[in-house]
Amino acid sequence: MTKLKSFQSLTLLLLISFLINNHCSGKNKLTIIKTEPPGVDVYDQNRIKLGITPYTVTKIKEREVVYSLEKEGYETKYMGLRKTGTGEISFYGVMLVCDKCKPNMKSEEIIGLTQQDGVIWMQKKSKEFDKRVAVELDKVDLEISPSMAIGRLDGERKSIDSKGIHQQIGYVDSYDETIFYSIKESFFDPWFTSAVTNKVEDFRKPKIRMKVSIKNIFFKLGGRSLPELSGPCTISTEWKIYNLKDKEKPAIVIPIEITCIRTREMTDYIIPLLLEEAAHKFLENDTLYRFMDNLANGTVTVNKGEIIKIKIPALKTTANPAVKDKFKNALQAVVTIEGENSFGSGVIISNDGYIITNYHVIDEEGQVVVQLKEEMKMYATIIKSNPEYDLALIKISAVDLKALRLSDSDEAEVGEEVYAIGTPADTRLGQTLTKGIISGKREIKNIHYIQTDVSINPGNSGGPLINDKGEIVGITTMKIFGKGYEGLGFCIPSNVIIEMLNLKFE
Fold it and tell me: Are strands 133-137 and 188-192 parallel, antiparallel or unpaired?
């Protein structure tokens, strides 16, 4: 009996030892699908729900399967599972993020990572905002010495200047494009720095600039071709946000570090893939939109300048004037403005010669000529400009001019009849009048506009949009074109004009 008990005890000890050794040696055949956040629904390729994460996969019927991961408020992710010859199940076609490995940025500390250390990072769906934030993107800065080790491929040490390395890590232009398209999917309206030329109107240009710097990178990947490369990799980046009025000192620097496990059958280059994950983490910040929007608006606000006091025009308007007199005063208050290389329109807002027009109509380095009715021309002085809002205030030395008052544009309603006066196409067509309605009130690139179907053409820029009383509702801006806006007229509302030129009527 004693020998039997000893045998049973020995058998139990051997069984326990086997289970422990089998687990610790990594021969456990179980594969756990982990996500951040957890609680994600797991579906097979037949749309059958298998469970929620963390989800344990004990076996798969076919050699390869594709599962989808779905959660409300998050983008759907797809991942592949493959059964190996030893019966193990491995991931493929998906990047696994290892948040717990985040502090371990040294190369020797990420070598031991396995797929079971990583989680699938679920990307939040981009929130719907009323407006997008325009941002100028500088080139990605690779702050790594050409000779410094950036990783190992099949055990071979690699650096930036290693022969043929860009066929694995990608070219610098692909880094720029990765950032561009990654943030474009959110609330950002990105522009490459090279696209923001002098030909782009100032009011359309981004008010903030972003520069991404790669501070450190390391990988230990096995595989001979790009789709075969798998293993741990890490990147350290800095996202610098600048107010364009201060290009030297960033308004904020956001460090983003990502440690990932690359699985097989991913065709993206190493660095762009890591940058994409870093961009997703950058966009996860719930306060990012408000910060960027405030920064962009703050840039505009500081350009208002000092208060300009203007006398209210000595004009009495009537709600229903006679048809022949309805626009007589308004036509006389609209002028043609000639620069050295272009022309546009303007409107007199005081009897002593203050005139509002568009910034892009004037030439700050040249002479501005104002043509009044009956071929009379006068030189004008530029009093103030706000390029971001495409506004300018100029003045001629004159008295007893016909002038228009600015209305309260907040009271203008969609469907209300309005009239545009200006100089379309040719200086000989000054004081041309067209009629339409207010089609809507829009916000584009942080700026409010009145949308109208009034017929307006090049040369109308800077001319007034007036209501039935002959008051200025807004100033026509002709340079807002693009997808979704072709053929539509947009005007800067009178209340915005008063605020952004800092005018005070008394």
Answer: parallel
Instruction: Give the Cα separation of 304 and 497 in Å (integer).
Output: 10
Q: What angle do CA 343, 345, 346 make, to 5 degrees?
A: 130
Cα separation, 186 vs 127, whole angstroms = 8
Q: Do 336 and 355 meet the contact criterion of CB atoms below 8 Å apart?
A: no
Any idea what DSSP says for residue 429? Answer: G
How would residue 169 be classed by pLDDT, with cut points 50, 70 and 90? very high
Q: Give the type of residue at 324.
A: K
Which of 41-45, 101-105, 123-127, 141-145 is predicted least confidently? 101-105
List the one residue out of 298, 380, 347 whose CA is nearest residue 463.
347
Using pLDDT thresholds of 50, 70 and 90, give the confidence band for residue 289: confident
pLDDT tens for each residue of 317-375: 555 555 456 677 788 888 888 866 667 889 999 999 999 998 888 866 567 889 886 66
| 3-class DSSP state of 283 | helix
The token pair at 419 is: 């009239």
Q: Of 90, 65, 77, 82, nearest to 36 (Cα)? A: 77
Phi first, then psi: give them for residue 325, nearest 5 degrees: -105, 0
CA distances from 321 to 111, 174, 326, 364, 468 (A): 84, 63, 5, 39, 9
The CA-based angle 50-51-56, given to 5 degrees, is: 90
Q: Is 216 exposed, middle or buried (0-12, 13-18, 19+ CB in 10 A)?
A: middle
Tokens, residue 399? 């008295």
Measured CA to CA, the distance from residue 133 to residue 450 in angstroms comes to 20
Beta strands in 116-207 (DSSP E): 120-121, 133-137, 141-142, 149-153, 156-159, 188-192
Residue 337, both tokens:
């403005």
Rounded distance, CA 190 to CA 180, Å?
6
pLDDT value at 205 more than 90: no
230 phi and psi angles, rounded to 5 deg: -150, 150
Q: How does pLDDT run across 384-429, given as a tens digit for each residue?
A: 888 878 889 999 998 889 899 999 999 989 989 998 887 655 555 5
pLDDT digits (tens, 9 = 90+) for 68-106: 999 998 999 999 999 887 778 999 999 999 866 654 445
Give the number of other CB atoms < 10 A from CB of residue 281: 19
What is the C-alpha separation between 344 and 424, in angstroms, rounded?
8
Torsion angle of the four alpha carbons 375, 379, 382, 386, in this order, in degrees rounded to the nearest 10? 30
**2-25 pLDDT per residue, tens:** 444 444 554 444 444 444 444 433
Residues 336 and 427: beta-carbon distance below 8 Å: yes
Which one, of 333, 503, 498, 496, lies nearest residue 430 by Cα? 333
pLDDT tens-digit map of 54-72: 999 988 888 999 999 999 9
